[in-house]
Design a protein that fits this description.
18 strands; Coagulation Factor XIII, Chain A, domain 1; globular; single chain; about 400 residues; alpha/beta; six-stranded mixed sheet
């Protein structure tokens, strides 16, 4: 990667990037090393071919993030997210392809990893700020704001080795979050401190992301990706398997993870499309799920033709399930159908996935599924908490 380019618009660029690693033991003796080198010299391989023990961690990855864009990168463990992150932060270089960062890069990664335990919190603020490229006068200007945000003002002149892990994390995050970078890279830092600080930390990240700078967020927290990111990519074994809006990519990720639950296609039910009446509503408001499909053959009693699930993207847990049978709707007749289900979002603010499936109840497995869709529940002024009870208030004289 190159450093900042004078006058250039801040951006991050990955252009057909490949990254190769070697699997297996390293040569720890001259006797093993010399034959290995000789084999590499004799055996000619192209750039894309792999020597014995090599594997591609990243394959032909391309993306560009410019001012005003926030890109989410999601995927299962081992999909290549960490390798991509290390190339973004210049820890690793590509084996092939080109990557560039134009502008000063700020990272919210391992936020307290660089603290010196024998230095005070105050001294570590200036040390970390200097490492991040801030001038001393800028650190001094931001110092009070950093300390106030971290909540460790009473201990700021105490060596950080006496801090709790939460205090270390809060101070580290606060320093990193007040860097004022040209480009921001975020990796799973939204679990620092207690719940109150986590919300303030996310609010700070949201402000940075909405300030117009290019942002990349690598995370398993799908609800945070849904709220922050305008676009996203889904990685699987180092390759992009889906690219699009955050909602589209999260839906593909959920469907990918649920695919293992599907048994062989029974040819009984086809779920063609799933639509929501809106993709964002106020907590407590009503919305409609519309499902188009077809019953292909007469169904046995064990087959539930239409099941609707609502999944929290914050926890990954299914929080609501209903079905045609539970609602006393007969869907056993063969042929096409259009089903409409009205629901009330008695839910706290956040992002949720609506999933539809046909289920073999005897085997407890899905036999067909539709593409899941995402809905955003927005906060209202009428309540706070984890349950929407639709409050009303009246006064008597």
């Amino acid at each position: 990667m190159t450093g900042a380019m004078c006058g250039a618009e801040p951006r991050l660029l990955f252009d057909r990037v490949w990254k190769k690693f070697h699997r297996g033991s390293l040569h720890d003796s001259l006797r093993d090393f010399i034959p290995a080198v000789a084999r590499r010299l004799v055996t000619r391989t192209s750039d894309r071919e792999l020597s014995s023990g090599d594997f591609w961690a990243i394959r032909d990855l391309s993306f560009e993030v410019r001012s005003g864009q926030t890109l989410g990168i999601i995927g299962s463990n081992g999909s290549g997210k960490s390798t991509t992150l290390k190339m973004l932060t210049r820890i690793l270089s590509p084996s092939r392809g080109y990557c560039e960062a134009t502008g000063r890069v700020g990272t919210l990664i391992e936020v307290s990893a660089g603290f010196h335990g024998d230095l005070t919190g105050r001294e570590n603020v200036f040390l970390q700020g200097a490492i991040m490229g801030m001038a001393r006068v800028d650190i001094a200007r931001k110092f009070d704001e950093i300390v106030e945000f971290s909540g460790v003002s009473d201990s700021i002149d105490t060596p950080v080795k006496r801090y709790s892990s939460g205090m270390n994390a809060r101070l580290g995050f606060s320093i990193a979050a007040h860097l004022e970078p040209d480009i921001l890279i975020i990796d799973e830092v939204l679990s620092v401190g207690d719940m109150s600080f986590q919300e303030r930390a996310f609010g700070r990240i949201r402000d940075l992301a909405r300030s117009g700078i290019p942002v990349i967020m690598v995370s398993h927290q799908l609800d945070r990706v849904a709220e922050l990111c305008s676009d996203a990519i889904l990685l699987n074994k180092g390759e992009v398997t889906k690219r699009g809006t955050a909602a589209e990519v999260i839906a593909a990720y959920v469907q990918q993870n649920e695919a293992a639950r599907l048994v062989a296609n029974t040819g009984l039910v086809l779920l063609d499309s799933v639509r929501l009446s809106t993709d964002a509503i106020a907590s407590g408001a009503h919305f409609t799920v519309r499902v188009e499909g077809q019953v292909l053959q007469p169904l046995c009693p064990d087959i539930e033709p239409l099941v609707v699930r609502v999944r929290s993207l914050r926890t990954g847990a299914i929080i609501f399930v209903t079905s045609s049978r539970r609602l006393s709707v007969d869907m056993t007749r063969t042929g096409p159908f259009v089903a409409k289900l009205e629901l009330q979002a008695n839910l706290p603010p956040g992002s949720y996935m609506v999933e539809v499936a046909s289920v073999d109840t005897a085997a407890s497995k899905d036999v067909a599924s539709g593409t899941p869709v995402m809905i955003r529940v927005n906060e209202t002024a009428t309540f706070s908490g984890s349950v929407q009870l639709n409050p009303t208030l009246s006064l008597s004289p």
